[in-house]
Amino acid sequence: PLNETGRAQAQAARAQLGDLHFDAVYASPLQRAIETGAIIGNVPMAEVIRDERLIEADFGRFEKKSYWRMSLPMTLYWALPELFPCPKKDGVESIDSLVARSRSFLEELEQKEYADVLIACHGGIMRALSGYLMDRKNGICWRPKPRNCEIRVFQVEEGKHQYLRDLRLPKDGVR
User: pLDDT tens digits for 30-51?
Assistant: First the structure.
């Protein structure tokens, strides 16, 4: 679940959106993403559409460990996945898998008749979603690292993707 800092960040992000209404709010099935989506999307949690494809990258045996407490191969991989191999023997999900999940989700979403959609997810999958929407050859936009409650705005019309802007909270996460 979200802590008070997370709730304050989500409320600050919502404030940036004014009276914008979303036709749909999607989220990772993790409780913190559902709650974030509900706050930013200004909808009850029951209306948030959960999708397994939006869950954070699987860190295998490194799940819930501090970034600095992971093995050197994992730290290098997560910092520079374009240069270092995925430590699959440790159960870590590959970037290719993240890209495939995000592509599957967004291709399905593009078939729907929505004007404005909010997707509440996690940093790793957000990088793959952004890569798809930025038409990156490798399917990923690894840098800059997404901040908590950062909103990346994209427009999709007739199958063409356009990145519009980021709505980023200050580093402390509140305004």
Answer: 999 999 999 999 999 999 999 9
Q: Could you tell me the residue range of the domain that residue 79 belongs to?
A: 58-92
Residue 72 lies in a domain: yes
Say if residue 75 is in the same domain as residue 152.
no
- Give the bridge partners for 153, in sequence order: 165
| Residue matched to tokens 């019309």 | 157
Residues contacting residue 83 through CB under 8 Å, at least 6 positions apart: 76
Same domain, 25 and 51: yes
**pLDDT for the residue 172:** 55
Judge whether residue 157 has pLDDT over 80. Answer: yes
Bigger pLDDT: 22 vs 137: 22
Same domain for 31 and 113, yes or no, is yes
| Identity of the amino acid at 68 | W
Output the CA angle 62-131-24, nearest 5 degrees.
Answer: 90
* 43-52 LR contacts (CB < 8 Å, sep 24+): 48/120, 49/24, 49/25, 50/26, 51/26, 51/27, 51/105
